[in-house]
Write a structure and sequence with these properties.
The chain is an all-alpha fold. It has helices at about 5-30, 50-65, 70, 80-100, 105-125, 130-150. It is about 65% helix and about 0% strand.
Length: about 160
């Protein structure tokens, strides 16, 4: 058995331990009392959007809307959720790749995208113990938040 890789890993861990503890101390010093970011308006106004974001979010909403009755009636099977999740995941990927917002708006958008992503993972059956129906509810909540916090002309909340 070659012990060199093990020795190398142990040496690296030994060197990293003091660094990680100093970083942890530094982190706790600078962020003492810091709260988890929450969605908020931009000084009372909705955040600006760009065309790639508006187009992607419109397509996500358009994909969800025709499936609402099946979701609410608990009639959408796992394969249906997985197929829907795959299409939503592609749209989120397109948004992330093409959207160019101001840093503050981008930070708020990432909160919406995090909820979308968590919902999509549950719908796809990728999250441990995730319920696809609850995942769909999370996606719907993220779409509501998007409409509440982002300026998207013509955006209409879905009736659900």
């Amino acid at each position: 058995m070659n012990k060199k890789p093990l020795v190398t890993v142990l040496c690296l861990l030994a060197l990293a331990a003091p660094l990680s503890s100093s970083l942890a101390a530094d982190h706790s010093h600078h962020h003492h009392g810091a709260a988890t970011p929450t969605l908020q308006l931009n000084q009372g106004q909705k955040w600006a959007t760009d065309a790639p974001l508006r187009d992607g979010m419109s397509r996500i909403q358009a994909a969800m809307e025709p499936r609402l009755a099946e979701i609410h009636g608990n009639r959408l099977n796992r394969a249906g959720y997985a197929k829907l999740a795959a299409s939503l995941e592609r749209e989120v990927g397109g948004i992330v790749a093409a959207c160019k917002l101001a840093p503050e708006a981008d930070a708020m958008l990432h909160l919406v995208l995090a909820d979308l992503g968590a919902g999509i993972e549950a719908m796809a059956g990728k999250s441990k113990g995730g319920d696809p129906r609850r995942g769909a509810a999370k996606v719907l909540g993220a779409l509501e938040d998007y409409g509440r916090y982002f300026d998207h002309p013509g955006w209409k909340p879905m009736a659900h």
